[in-house]
Amino acid sequence: MSQARKTTNLAEMNTSRRPLRVAVIGAEGHVGSTICEALPSHHEVIKVGRNSGDVNADISERSSIEAMYEEIGKVDAVVLAAGAVHFSPIEQFPEDKFLFNLKHKAMGQINCVLAGLDYVNDGGSFTLTSGILDRDPVPMASGAAAANGAIGGFVKSAAIEMPRGTRINVVSTGLQDISVERYGSVFPGHAPVSSERVAYAYLKCIEGSITGELVTVD
User: In this predicted model, what pLDDT tens digit does every residue of 87-116 receive, in sequence order?
Assistant: First the structure.
């Protein structure tokens, strides 16, 4: 059975929850597409991408994020599966590239929360995405690891003061099976994780009740 079919079955199984309006930012990427396929069909999914999807936004720019929310309007959940990172040996890691990682991966997602607080309905949720590199590092990934750690710290702290019952969590996954061909060489010795397990992690955050949690998929 194909992986795509597995995630479709997962979506078909999850039909008991109330309908949600969900914005998935980075919807066309490997993680984003897994999330979209897993969400039950009775949810309304707004796909956001830098150059694709229903709405376009560059999350490295606060003004673009604000324009995105104005176009989308009120939602029940915002899922972040976007954020570029630069890899470089630590001895040759220029400050501007390190800051690039923090701006695009960490601050991009954080700004989506800060700018989106008034656009998420009462009891809604934000689900951010970090990754395994701050827990199980690989060479040349110190910048990505720093961004991942910043996201995790922000989520844990922000959770205690989110307004109106809003929840916030972060999913940290290992190398996803559908990403092996493209990124496998960057993760030597890392066993791929199934897209089905990745999907469950995001559904737990979107449809569940947890908040302030780092949900790992190793």
Answer: 999 999 999 999 999 999 999 999 999 999
Q: Give the residue from 206, 215, 181, 204 showing the smallest Cα distance to 30.
A: 181
User: How far is Cα 141 from Cα 174, in angstroms, rounded to an integer?
Assistant: 14
Residue 144 pLDDT level (bands cut at 50, 70, 90): very high
- State both tokens at 95: 């400050």
* DSSP label at residue 26: T
The DSSP string of 69-88 is HHHH--EEEEEE--------
Question: Could you tell me the two tokens for 189?
Answer: 């010795």
- Position 13 scores a pLDDT of 52
Q: Where are the alpha helices (DSSP H) in the chain?
A: 3-13, 30-38, 62-72, 95-101, 108-116, 142-158, 180-183, 195-207
Structure tokens at 128: 């951010």
Cα 98 to its chain centre, rounded Å, is: 20
Q: Residue 117: how many CB atoms within 10 A of its CB?
A: 15
CA distance linking residue 23 with residue 31, whole number of Å: 14
Bridge partners, 53 (sequence order): 48
Contact residues for 178 (Cβ-Cβ < 8 A; gap 6+)? 3, 30, 34, 195
Prediction pTM value: 0.91
Q: How does pLDDT run across 190-206, given as a tens digit for each residue?
A: 999 999 999 999 999 99
